[in-house]
């Protein structure tokens, strides 16, 4: 038996689950669910579940393909060396095959069971993450996460399209919130693991332009994010609770960004962790509003 086949023979169910990047997938599931809840119109609960499941599988498939392509650098980074491929539990070839099968399967079923618009958006998400971000941008430009971040911003838009079979301005705003959130989130992370990126020659912002330029970018994107995230309230598809909560969270986000700019100890990790809570809270508030208003009406 070849070395590659031996690796995959020793893999268990959890190893293949880890290939799907479950922590990233949890955020995808949640934002896709909010997209379904926030969209106008009704969807049968079973079909809503199927929609979110297929979005999660598609996102997980792109994670597996990312691990296939990045196997050479993942093994040299402290943050990623425990992943199934660099840890020698699953071969890169098997990760590639696994990712391809799940990619085509999730898109095909989305088109057959839900609608063509959501299937096209799911295919675009996978293509953007694997080809545009992982293969083309990640190792070439410090703007990799800025442009590539679009892949993580599609799930609520796909959820919206699953209900409406359309792309609307409202769904583009939900896309925009995550798209603008992504750079400060990952730039904060890159500040305290920059040695990892430097070791494998991935041109993240602090490696190429230094820590101060990264801090400046965090400030700029944070100042853009805070007002942009309130747009659903002003556009009328979110209520007052959403507007107030999101505005307050935006101010806190900017405060943490300023702490990074002032080089306060541990500020990068605090913003990174808060940014995860921020995105969850913003989308949770939107979903809860819709659910409560639905009960009342």
From TrEMBL:
Tell me where it resides.
Cell membrane
Query: Its family?
Result: Belongs to the UbiA prenyltransferase family. Protoheme IX farnesyltransferase subfamily.
Give the transmembrane ranges.
20-39, 46-69, 107-132, 144-163, 169-193, 214-234, 240-259, 271-296
Its function, per the record, reads: Converts heme B (protoheme IX) to heme O by substitution of the vinyl group on carbon 2 of heme B porphyrin ring with a hydroxyethyl farnesyl side group.
What are the EC numbers? 2.5.1.141
Which terms are listed as keywords in the entry?
Cell membrane, Heme biosynthesis, Membrane, Transferase, Transmembrane, Transmembrane helix
- The entry's protein name is Protoheme IX farnesyltransferase
Q: How does it sit in the membrane?
A: Multi-pass membrane protein
Keyword Zinc appears in the UniProt entry? no
Question: Could you tell me which PROSITE patterns the record lists for this protein?
Answer: UBIA (PS00943)
Query: Which gene specifies this protein's sequence?
Result: ctaB
Q: Which NCBIfam families match?
A: cyoE_ctaB, PRK04375.1-2
Output the lineage of the source organism.
Bacteria, Pseudomonadati, Pseudomonadota, Alphaproteobacteria, Kordiimonadales
The parts of the chain that form a coiled coil are: none
Pfam family, any one: UbiA
Pathway membership? Porphyrin-containing compound metabolism; heme O biosynthesis; heme O from protoheme: step 1/1
What's in the misc comment field? Carbon 2 of the heme B porphyrin ring is defined according to the Fischer nomenclature.
GO-annotated biological processes: heme O biosynthetic process
Which reactions are catalysed by this chain?
Answer: heme b + (2E,6E)-farnesyl diphosphate + H2O = Fe(II)-heme o + diphosphate
One GO cellular component term of this record is: plasma membrane
**GO MF entry, a single one:** protoheme IX farnesyltransferase activity
The record, for InterPro entries, names: Protohaem_IX_farnesylTrfase, UbiA_prenyltransferase, UbiA_prenylTrfase_CS, UbiA_sf
């Amino acid at each position: 038996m070849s070395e590659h086949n031996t690796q995959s023979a020793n893999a268990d169910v959890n190893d293949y689950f880890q290939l799907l990047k479950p922590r990233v997938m949890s955020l995808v599931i949640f934002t896709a669910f909010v997209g379904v809840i926030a969209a106008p119109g009704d969807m049968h609960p079973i079909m809503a579940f199927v929609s979110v499941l297929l979005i999660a599988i598609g996102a997980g498939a792109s994670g597996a393909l990312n691990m296939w392509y990045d196997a050479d650098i993942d093994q040299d980074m402290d943050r990623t060396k425990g992943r199934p491929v660099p840890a020698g539990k699953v071969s890169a070839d098997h990760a590639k095959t696994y990712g391809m099968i799940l990619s085509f399967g999730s898109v095909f079923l989305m088109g057959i069971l839900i609608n063509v618009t959501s299937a096209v958006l799911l295919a675009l998400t996978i293509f953007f993450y694997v080809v545009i971000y992982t293969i083309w941008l990640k190792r070439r430009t410090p703007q990799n996460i800025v442009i590539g971040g679009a892949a993580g911003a599609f799930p609520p838009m796909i959820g919206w399209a699953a209900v409406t079979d359309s792309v609307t301005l409202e769904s583009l705003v939900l896309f925009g919130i995550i798209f603008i959130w992504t750079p400060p989130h990952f730039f904060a992370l890159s500040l305290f693991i920059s040695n990892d990126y430097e070791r494998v020659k991935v041109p993240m912002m602090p490696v190429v332009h230094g820590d101060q330029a990264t801090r400046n970018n965090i400030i700029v994107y944070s100042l853009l994010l805070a007002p942009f995230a309130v747009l659903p309230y002003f556009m009328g598809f979110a209520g007052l609770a959403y507007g107030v909560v999101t505005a307050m969270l935006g101010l806190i986000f900017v405060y943490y960004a300023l702490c990074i700019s002032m080089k306060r100890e541990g500020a990068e990790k605090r913003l990174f962790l808060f940014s995860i809570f921020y995105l969850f809270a913003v989308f949770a508030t939107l979903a809860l509003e819709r659910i409560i208003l639905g009960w009342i009406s």
